[in-house]
Design a protein that fits this description.
Distance between the termini: 106 Å
CATH class of the largest domain: Mainly Alpha
CATH superfamily of the largest domain: Ankyrin repeat-containing domain
Largest sheet: 2 strands, antiparallel
Radius of gyration: 41 Å
Number of strands: 2
Number of helices: 29
Strand content: under 5%
Strand order of the largest sheet: 1-2
CATH architecture of the largest domain: Alpha Horseshoe
Shape: rod-shaped
Oligomer: single chain
Structural class: mainly alpha
CATH topology of the largest domain: Serine Threonine Protein Phosphatase 5, Tetratricopeptide repeat
Length: about 525
């Protein structure tokens, strides 16, 4: 018992003279038989404390201690790597390089000392990188380049761990090795590129993308690419690097069917969102960017955030005349239409200016965007010129009065002319039975259909502009279809029925175009 205590004490303090005295009293075999409760030998203890002279002396007496294991499966090199003892690690690595197996050792499945795995499957290099011992890791890579690609039980190589811990020199050293993996190793946590993105190490990510571009589109167990994690962390630089390597990675969805843009939106990563939209404008359009932004952005501040000119998304949608965007924005209760930009304008006042100058970029802006804006007529919009706030419906009324007045007048004239022409048939009527003389002629049938279509189309415009005339318009449709039926049915029943069908479809067309807003159109 005294021998055990004395040997372990000498190893802890690094006393080489005491080691020699103890061995002289017995023999070198005592070094292998003396163990701690964790099954550490004297060499394990000396390596842990960084006593390189003691380790060198002990191994010169008993070479087999280099590959001895404790209860965790660690060799002395594992402990030196964990503690960051570079001198001991360099000594052990040098001795390991000269290690040779005999036939019996190979049959028993012994590994090379530099590649030996502990109970977790970690080599000494894994341990050094995991504990951020960069000098030791570089020493071990020089001694055994192959160990840089060894996988532990979690399917992680030292490259994975170095990328996760942000050890850029270690990553650079491994990537510079001529012999690399045949196929990229993918753990549940993904590739080394995933680890770099998850850890926010942009320089390491850039190195990996340059040397291992195939990692860009690989996914982890959740189906996420490195771009998903870069977007989640709001890392603008990493997003830019990844998208420059592969623009199509922006389309990849994870197991939750979320693209990187969805992830950035859900996390409120505004800089990442802007970079994704900038780098992949076409891709973002296909992904329905605005819709997913509104769905996943939780913060009200984000959806109302202004640009350098003070314009919110609603300002820009009105300026560009984008009806679908206006619809999506105005359906979101978090959108604030009262925000003023640096020019002192709200979205409503921009609309007011465009109405005054008869400027509208998109003709279909009327049926979509404006009818959606009506739903917000209870909200007051500050005037760009100060004074009493204007209700948003006021802007809509002005627009309808200025833009639809001419259309309504023209449509009314067309409806009047076409209605009267139905009763002034070409060649007149048969005096005996009151039917059209040319009722069987093909050109007459074309006239009836075209005339009816022109009149009904005009009625739709009139009804659109002034909803209080809907009843009279419906009555006009009934009278026209009835008149046509009476004059045409005797000689051309199918034509009469066609006109009736067209007339009945007119109210349906109005309802489809305006929906529930048909009665909300300003008079």
């Amino acid at each position: 018992m005294g021998m055990v205590r004395a040997l372990l004490s000498a190893a802890t303090r690094g006393k080489v003279d005491e080691l020699r005295q103890l061995v002289a009293r017995s023999d070198a075999e005592v070094l292998g038989s003396v163990r701690t409760p964790k099954f550490d030998t004297a060499v394990h203890i000396a390596a842990l404390h960084g006593h390189s002279r003691f380790v060198s002396e002990a191994l010169s007496l008993n070479r087999e201690l280099l590959v001895s294991r404790n209860s965790d499966g660690d060799t002395p090199l594992h402990l030196a790597a964990r503690a960051g003892k570079e001198r001991v690690a360099r000594l052990l690595a040098g001795l390991a390089q000269g290690w040779t197996f005999d036939a019996s050792s190979r049959d028993d499945g012994f590994q090379h000392p530099l590649e030996m795995e502990n109970n977790a499957g970690d080599t000494p290099l894994h341990v050094a990188v995991r504990h951020r011992r960069e000098p030791v890791a570089l020493t071990l890579i020089e001694a055994s380049p192959y160990s840089a690609f060894q996988l532990n039980d979690s399917m992680e190589s030292p490259l994975h761990l170095a990328a996760r811990e942000g050890l850029s020199y270690v990553v650079w050293k491994i990537l510079g090795i001529a012999t690399v993996e045949q196929r990229p190793s993918i753990s549940d946590r993904g590739t080394p590129l995933h680890e770099a993105a998850r850890g926010g190490h942009s320089f390491i990510l850039m190195l990996l993308v340059q040397k291992r571009p195939e990692l860009t589109e690989l996914v982890d167990a959740s189906g996420s690419t490195a771009l998903h994690y870069a977007a989640e962390r709001n890392e603008k630089r990493m997003v830019k690097i990844l998208l420059r390597r592969s623009i199509f990675v922006a389309l990849k969805r994870n197991n939750d069917l979320q693209s990187p843009l969805h992830v950035a939106s859900s996390c409120g990563s505004t800089e990442a969102i802007m970079e994704i939209l900038k780098q992949s404008a076409g891709i973002a359009e296909r992904a329905n960017a605005l819709k997913c932004l509104l769905r996943y952005v939780q913060s009200e501040e984000v959806v109302n955030r202004a640009d350098m000119d003070g314009n919110t998304p609603l300002h820009l949608a009105v300026k560009l005349g984008r009806p679908q965007m206006c619809l999506q924005l105005l359906r979101d209760q978090r959108i604030n239409p009262c925000i003023v930009n640096k020019d002192g304008q709200t979205a409503g006042s921009i609309l007011d200016t465009r109405i005054a100058h008869f400027v509208m970029l998109d003709p279909i802006f009327i049926p979509f965007a404006f009818l959606s804006l009506i739903a917000y007529n209870t909200k007051s919009i500050p005037s760009a010129r100060g004074g009493k706030p204007k209700p948003l419906s006021k802007f809509l009324s002005q627009y309808v009065e200025l833009r639809m007045g001419t259309y309504t007048l023209v449509s009314t004239l067309i409806a009047t002319v076409t209605f009267s022409s139905l009763f002034t048939m070409p060649s007149g009527y048969d005096q005996q039975d009151g039917t059209a003389v040319l009722g069987h002629h093909a050109a007459f049938k074309v006239f009836v259909v075209a005339n009816t279509l022109a009149m009904l189309s005009s009625i739709i415009i009139v009804a659109w502009s002034h909803w209080l005339t809907i009843i009279s318009c419906v009555a006009m449709v009934v009278s026209v279809t009835t008149a046509v039926y009476l004059t045409v049915v005797a000689k051309s029943p199918l034509l009469a029925y066609l006109v009736i069908a067209m007339g009945c479809s007119t109210p349906v067309v109005v309802l489809v175009m305006l929906g529930k807003n048909v009665f909300a159109t300003p008079a």
